[in-house]
Specification:
The protein is α+β, with helices and mostly antiparallel strands. It is built from four helices and eleven strands; from the N terminus they run ββββαβαββαββαββ.
């Protein structure tokens, strides 16, 4: 298994796609991470290549409890408030690192097999199977499919969420900016004008 994979990065857009070939995920406000497990060794790697394994012990603990001993999952490290909305300021403060969880939305490898060449729909099926029954620590990102995208974005904005990421369901995982991953942000959310971290 590779030490780390390049991260697929969504490109910004002003409009949520509405075709049947798209999956739509709520954008949580956190830090992007890959969780890499090789036997008993678990590492948390940022998109800048930094090792944050010691920073978020809950994610590491849950990753070690998963039956499969070789996997790479992609997601967002988040601190959830009592309202279920991600609290970026609390996350950024570093005062609540023991409470930080992973919002997992992709699976790049499993049992030593490279899954990046598989379509997103199959990778999500594999991810759900890997994390079945786990509601805390590392949880599967919910998603909707198809024409609902624009309406889901409006609902996310009303709830004060950061926005949506829409992804083509049949595309493989590719490192770097991906035109088949579309990010549309809520203009009223603090993250809209915040300079993104480079971790």
């Amino acid at each position: 298994m590779r030490r780390r994979s390049d991260f697929a990065l969504p490109v910004r857009a002003d409009k949520v796609p509405a075709g049947p070939d798209w999956f739509h995920e709520i954008k949580y406000d956190g830090y992007r991470l890959q969780v890499i497990r090789e036997h008993d060794r678990v590492r948390l790697i940022t998109k800048g290549g930094y090792d944050w394994t010691k920073r978020y012990p809950w994610i590491v603990e849950v990753a070690r409890k998963i039956r499969q001993s070789h996997f790479v999952i992609d997601g967002e490290a988040v601190l959830l408030g009592v309202d279920g909305i991600s609290d970026f300021n609390g996350l950024h403060s570093g005062k609540h690192n023991a409470e930080v969880q992973l919002y997992a939305f992709d699976m790049l490898a499993g049992d030593g097999d490279d899954m990046r060449k598989l379509p997103l729909s199959m990778r999500k099926t594999n991810l759900a199977r890997l994390l079945r029954g786990r509601a805390e620590g590392i949880f599967v990102a919910p998603f909707e499919q198809g024409e609902i995208g624009p309406d889901l974005f409006e609902a996310a904005c009303r709830m004060g969420l950061e926005g949506l990421v829409s992804k083509r369901r049949e595309r493989r995982y590719e490192g770097g900016p991906c035109k088949h991953w579309i990010k549309v942000k809520n203009r009223k959310h603090p993250a809209y004008s915040r300079v993104q971290d480079q971790f």
